[in-house]
TrEMBL record:
Transmembrane segments: none
Gene source species: Campylobacter majalis
Protein name: Deacylase
Domain (D,L-carboxypeptidase peptidase): residue spans on this chain: 30-262
InterPro entries registered for this protein in UniProt: Metallo_peptidase_C, Peptidase_M99
Residue ranges of every copy of the Metallo-carboxypeptidase C-terminal domain listed in the record: 336-428
Length: 429
């Protein structure tokens, strides 16, 4: 069976060269029992922002309401930094209007204070493993990893006033699903109001001052990214259950499936589908990308994807992971094609610009009036490469967009003007 894959794009980002704003994804049906889930306040803590992005992309909220901000400090995520302009989690008591983080901090404060929000969960990766008594340099009271954090035991008048009981419930749930007993979780009460100078400046304590039930979950930095993400997802799910929020997801929660969710294919669309990429095992550099001059716009199926202009190229990142670099060749754009006929393994498929075709043996692009097809990586004597039967053995491997040499671009241009009018991707099974 031949497959036509149409890209499903969920998150829109419009940027200039140096601006990266956080995404807000609202899931479920809004009510006054909304969970506000935050990741990425510190960009060197991938477990938190990866877990939040998985909830944003893979979880279906069937009862209740969840708002997800997976990349609160997006610039620091891209730079793999705790904070490119200082620690954002120490700017909630006061922030100067000239601070580069001012817009993000003030806008997330408004979300925290929204009457619909009943509980805030901030995701962190902390050092070592917390323990009440000193065991060794990695397991002691000064560490933050493997903890459910509260600022105080009781917050009277909030939706969930018994913070200690809820954090204990989550802690117990995680400890029933440990990967190793050394990862044992504890509840850590910072007693912030009693004078913890640093925590008084934090996001969760700001939420407490707004009479909002607030928690932080700290996975250990001693673990790899998928293990940290696994523990965060355990915590998120139990907080949702405690709130009466119901959900489902397309995988069983274990480390192997979490790794697959982190590394699954991501779709990226530039200029409203004029040029699309699937980001999976992508080559480190892609050349002769047909772009138009001016500010770039893009959408992606994952909110952690960013396209950043660097000199004359565009760097693509997924969180703090470098994906590829686009080296543009500039064209004027014409009207985007909305009907491209492809014969894939003998079966006719009607595609539109940006779609991906799955092919087992060969494909043939039907001729389009006044349009020429350019199959990138296919060596033909003809300027217009439509009407030719093409198989994988005809393709030059280095022109594929993926490292495995299976995905290729087919681009379309007006014959008279050479305006670029769209493309499709062909994936050989």
């Amino acid at each position: 069976m031949k497959i036509l894959i149409k890209f499903c794009i969920f998150f829109s980002i419009f940027i200039n060269a140096n601006t990266l704003e956080y995404a807000l994804i609202k899931k479920g049906i809004e009510d006054n029992n909304t969970l506000l889930l935050i990741g990425g306040i510190q960009g060197d803590e991938p477990g938190g922002f990866l877990a939040a992005s998985i909830v944003a992309t893979d979880y279906n909220i069937t009862k209740g309401s969840v708002w997800v901000v997976p990349n609160l400090n997006f610039p620091s995520i891209i730079e793999r930094s705790r904070g490119t302009k200082g620690d954002m989690n120490r700017k909630f008591a006061h922030i100067d209007k000239n601070d580069p983080d001012y817009k993000a901090v003030t806008s997330i404060k408004k979300l925290i204070s929204d009457p619909k929000v009943a509980l805030i969960l901030n995701l962190h990766d902390g050092s070592g493993f917390y323990n009440d008594t000193y065991i060794n340099k990695d397991i002691n009271p000064q560490k933050w990893g493997s903890t459910c954090i509260i600022d105080q035991e009781i917050l009277s008048g909030s939706t969930y006033p018994d913070l200690m009981s809820m954090a204990t419930r989550v802690k117990d749930h995680i400890n029933k699903n440990l990967l190793n007993q050394s990862h044992f979780y504890h509840v850590k009460n910072t007693h912030t109001a009693k004078g913890d100078i640093e925590m008084l400046k934090s996001l969760t304590y700001y939420a407490v001052t707004q009479n909002k039930s607030a928690f932080a979950n700290e996975a250990s930095k001693n673990l790899n990214a998928e293990q940290r993400t696994y523990y965060h997802l355990l915590a998120i799910e139990e907080y949702m259950r405690a709130m009466g929020i119901e959900f489902n997801k397309p995988f069983e929660l274990n480390v192997q499936n979490v790794k697959k969710a982190i590394e699954k294919e991501i779709q990226l669309s530039l200029f409203d589908g004029m040029f699309n990429l699937n980001l999976l095992d992508t080559r480190a550099n892609l050349t002769y990308i047909p772009l138009k001059k001016g500010e770039i716009s893009y959408t992606s199926s994952n909110p952690l994807v960013a396209v950043i202009k660097e000199n004359n190229t565009y760097k693509i990142q997924y969180g703090n992971r470098y994906v590829t670099r686009l080296n543009p060749q500039y064209f004027e754009y014409g009207k985007k094609l909305d009907a491209i006929n492809v014969i894939a393994d003998g079966v006719k498929i009607v595609a539109k610009s940006g779609d991906k075709i799955s092919v087992k043996n060969s494909f043939n692009i039907e001729k389009i009036n006044k349009i020429r097809a350019n199959i990138i990586g296919y060596n033909s004597k003809n300027i217009d490469e439509s009407g030719e039967n093409v198989s994988l053995k005809n393709m030059i491997n280095r022109f594929s967009i993926d490292k495995n040499g299976k995905n290729f671009r087919v681009e379309f241009y007006e014959i008279s003007t050479n305006k670029y009018v769209g493309m499709i991707l062909v994936e050989f099974e």
